[in-house]
Amino acid sequence: MKNICVYCSSSKNIDEKYFIAAKELGEKMAKCGFGLVYGGSSLGLMGEVALTAQKAGAKVLGVVPQKIFNTDIDFPKEIELVITDDMRERKKTMELRADAFIAMPGGFGTLEEVSEIIVSKQLGYHFKPIVILNVDGYYDKLFELFDNFYNEKFAHGNCKEIFYKANCVDDALNYIMNYKPVEDKDKWLEKFSFTK
């Protein structure tokens, strides 16, 4: 494991408890020797995790679409920054440069990013660890929706194994550090098939 991609909010108007969790994640990622791949902004949880990780000694890679880069949003000055043509290229670049994924609290963008990376793993395009960091129960309602997927047969119950629910930073990082990648790809695809 080298780099963790962190999906999270760029909002500045959220509760301080989420910034505390982002700061803890950045510090502990650096302490564990991980680099950070993230969405490039210096705002919100994005900025908190990036600047904290960088200050603690982690290598930080920001990935931002040209359209967003052209706005008046601030970007950290001393990190590697990759400018992509659009959002699709941004997500692909983040996926390729990461060895694991953590979704912190966020809005529609964060939900879209982590959903795509879950489906990519379900279909066997990658076998990297995925963690949803459920800070103070933020994602409880989302997990209830996922349970409805399983109960109503829109997703196989085995899909619960595709990602890991963590309630704290230490739990998230321990899961990633002890993760065992899938060896038999055919069994993986059979286990999580939509048709079962």
Write the topology of this structure.
Layout: E1 3-7, H1 16-31, E2 35-38, H2 44-55, E3 60-65, H3 66-69, E4 80-84, H4 87-97, E5 100-103, H5 108-122, E6 130-133, H6 140-151, E7 164-166, H7 169-177, H8 185-191
Parallel strand pairs: 1-2, 1-5, 2-3, 3-4, 5-6, 6-7
Oligomeric state of the chains present here = single chain
Gyration radius from CA atoms, angstroms: 16 Å
Strand content: 15-25%
Work out the helicity level. 40-55%
Task: Determine the mean pLDDT.
Answer: 91
The number of helices is 8
Shape: globular
CATH architecture: 3-Layer(aba) Sandwich
Strands of the largest sheet, in order across it?
A: 4-3-2-1-5-6-7
Let me know the largest β-sheet.
7 strands, parallel
What fold name stands as the CATH topology? Rossmann fold
Which blocks of ≥5 consecutive residues have pLDDT under 50? none
How does this model look, in words?
This protein has one domain (3-142, 159-184): Rossmann fold, CATH 3.40.50.450. Helix 1 (16-31) packs parallel to helix 2. It contains 8 helices and 7 strands; from the N terminus they run E-H-E-H-E-H-E-H-E-H-E-H-E-H-H. 44% of the residues lie in helices and 16% in strands. The model has no long low-confidence stretch (mean pLDDT 91).
